[in-house]
Design goal:
With 454 residues, the chain is of the alpha+beta class. The chain folds into 2 domains: 280 residues, 3-Layer(bba) Sandwich (FAD/NAD(P)-binding domain); 144 residues, Elongation Factor Tu (Ef-tu), domain 3 (Beta Barrel), CATH 2.40.30.260. It is built from 12 helices and 17 strands. Strand 1, helix 1 and strand 2 form a beta-alpha-beta unit. It is globular and about 65 Å long.
């Protein structure tokens, strides 16, 4: 008898990763994605795993927990990490990608997989049978209501913001300069320096600029890691100078000194034609964005190919509702993954989809479900979001503060590297003991690049 297909709802990073992990374990998958039948406020294409905000998957080094999480995912055969490594563009210590290459590779890989059926449909009801909901922060109203009926009326949400993108050829390099902070990673960033007068004039204009109003029924609850620049500016005149515009680790080669403030631009495509304004999420109206952002030295004549925006992101109360296996408490064959579980970030979202798929496969094989060790980046993050004692739950990134302390007196960089090395030892042992990775003979064919004949 043919085995029941696993339903995966949502073709973002978490859903795409989940579909891949299930298929490489020999399971049939029905992956439902409502785009392009119905677009969202943030997406622009019908591609799976489209990156709608930054093109950066953040730091790639072992000095950060998200860098360790990337390594853990590589050990777990992650499609998202395979795509990211193939589509990488220069970004200093960060792993940034050409977003079209990235999503195009994932789309082509899943479309060509014999065990994956991609259904372009909007799912309005939660299916019977094994299901992973990874519909993301912009879940459609009908599915959101179906989920609400299952888990109760409590609905948490926050707002996520998108930063503008400018064309490289319109950046005035007579005013801007190339450098990475502390000269790490080469001259991968374009930096627009400001003196004190320019900075304060910019902040004043930012505060006075017209903003897009919220809907009457919406209450703005911002995630601290993705705060709109105008919200930061309201906290004090120097907040931006100590936040996304901090000049630490940079020296203007023309002035021969550190600027008072700086706007950093990060490469957004493989060819280096597009640059993302780092940390410049905004709720300003489009005309006001063009006016105010062109006050930045070097951007006086900037061409914006994408302006900033703000959209509602929905997530569940995971400490109350979710098991560490990514199963809902009230239904053992229903898993939830991605940003909906309260993880923040591309990598974290994909990792949640990966773990949900591992356990969905184990459930179908009648094997014990698993949770990664707390010493790992993935395990510590899952422990945080499923800690039933947690109150006033808010989304969380992977970070070393979630992991158990190390014995001894290591501090700073040495401590972080030691915690990262411990995490990789722990994930390797976990994989081996729990038979997390499928045997080579059971794996689906490895991903082929779009257009490859194989």
């Amino acid at each position: 008898m043919e085995r029941l297909a696993v339903n995966v709802i949502g073709g973002g990073l978490a859903g795409s990763e989940a579909a891949w992990q299930l298929a490489r374990r020999g399971l049939r998958v029905r992956l439902s994605e409502m785009r392009p039948l119905r677009m969202t406020e943030a997406h622009q294409t019908a591609n799976l795993a489209e990156l709608v905000c930054s093109n950066s998957l953040r730091n790639a080094s072992m000095e950060t927990a998200v860098g360790v999480l990337k390594q853990e995912m590589r050990r777990l055969g992650s499609l998202v990490m395979l795509a990211a490594d193939r589509a990488r563009v220069p970004a200093g210590a960060a792993l940034a990608v050409d977003r079209e290459d990235f999503s195009g590779f994932i789309t082509a890989t899943l479309q060509s997989h014999p065990l994956v059926e991609i259904a372009r449909e909007e799912v309005a009801a939660i299916p019977d049978g094994p299901t992973i909901i990874a519909s993301g922060p912009l879940t459609g109203a009908a599915l959101g209501e179906a989920l609400n009926q299952l888990i109760g009326p409590r609905n948490l949400y926050f707002y996520d913001a998108i930063a503008p993108i400018v064309t490289a050829e319109t950046i005035d390099m007579n005013l801007a300069f190339r450098a990475s902070r502390y000269a790490k990673g080469g001259d991968d960033y374009i930096n627009c320096p400001m003196n004190e007068a320019q900075y304060h004039a910019f902040v004043d204009a930012l505060l006075l600029a017209e903003k897009v109003e919220h809907h009457p029924f919406e209450k703005p609850v911002y995630f601290e890691g993705c705060m709109p620049i105008e919200e930061m500016a309201r906290r004090g005149p120097l907040t931006l100078a100590f936040g996304p515009m901090r000049p630490v680790g940079l020296s203007d080669p023309r002035a021969g000194k550190r600027p008072f403030a700086v706007v950093q631009l990060r490469q957004d495509d493989r060819e280096g034609r597009l640059y993302n304004m780092v940390g410049f999420q905004t709720k300003m109206t489009y005309p006001e964005q063009r006016r105010v952002l062109r006050m930045v030295p070097g951007l006086e004549h900037a061409e914006f190919v994408r302006l900033g925006s703000l959209h509602r992101n929905t997530f569940i109360d995971s400490p109350r509702l979710l098991r560490p296996t990514m199963q809902l408490q009230m239904r053992h064959d229903l898993f939830v993954a991605g940003q909906m579980v309260g993880v923040e970030g591309y990598v974290e979202s994909a990792a949640a989809g990966l773990l949900a798929a591992i356990n969905a496969a184990k459930l179908l094989d009648s094997r014990p479900l698993v949770r990664p060790p707390a010493e790992t980046a993935l395990g510590s993050l899952v422990d945080y979001i499923t800690d039933g004692s947690r109150k006033n739950f808010q989304p969380m990134n992977a970070n070393y503060g979630l992991m158990p302390e190390l014995p001894g007196r290591l501090r700073g960089r040495q401590k972080k590297i030691a915690m990262g090395e411990r995490a990789l030892r722990a994930i390797d042992e976990w994989i081996a003991v729990n038979q997390v990775e499928p045997a080579a003979s059971a794996c689906a064919p490895e991903a082929a690049a779009p257009g490859d004949p194989r």
